[in-house]
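User: Hey, quick favor. My workstation is busy. Could you predict this chain's structure for me?
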Amino acid sequence: MLWFCTVVIFFSVHLAWANDIRVENIRTGFHETFCEVEFDLSWNNSWRTSSGPANWDAAWVFLKYRFRGQNGRPQVNWRHATLSTASRNHGVNNDGGIPAVFSPSEDGKGVFIYRSLEGKGPIRWQGVRLRWDTTSDRIPASSSAEIKIFALEMVYVPEGAFLVGDGVSPGRIHVGGDPKSPCRVTQDPPRLVNEPGGLWADGTPSKLPSGASGPSPWDNPSGTLSISFPTGHKAFYVMKYEISQGFYAEYLNSLSKQQAQARFPTPQEIKGVPRVRRVATPLLLMKVATIQQRHPCGQISG
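Assistant: No problem, here it is.
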């Protein structure tokens, strides 16, 4: 079978600290039921510690693709590639003495990659392999497609209790009955009540950039949050740095028109916001590689 695949890689560059994450030297290998996407992955100032806070940084990597028609023109919509949810189906050929852990999301829409042992310093992994489950995505044989690879630096925040609320900001969360004291969030679902032992919030709206008052930050709820409500006590990942405007623009370009519009302010919403002076420094690097593969891929039934 003949496959044509154009690979586009996006990664954000942070000039202030030079902690840029990079995806380079892309290769693909198509098989009967999957495609193996291989690349080199690197970033600076990586760490993992077993003592407090006992956490690590990681790369969050996900793929998007879209088909090309027989005339060579790409389809409008990009689709999220489904990666294997089995960690054993991913790996790295040369880890440079820093073994890697692959932790796919439950839905296969991305994978966290991080060092397995305690340490700090740059990551230089050559031949990182991700298995794209083309069967799940119903990729037909003899297809022509484009692939975008996104990579973001993340930080793992372990499970634990914490305090929320600064005691002064409009709309702040606070302990019930005391608007100047933060509320301690634990594994027990909080009661939404303005009395000792409860969780409450200040109802003062903030000012929008246009000068108008924003929506009320608190709608006077009641009851107890469900055990499944994401209060932040359970472990989670958070972005290590903010992304560039260029990176976000490319992300919006990989969505449908309706999806993109829901994630970008309308002209009415940004009216009155001061204009930001354009800078000539590039905040986004893009590498494009055209790859031709002559490997079999099984026919996917509908």
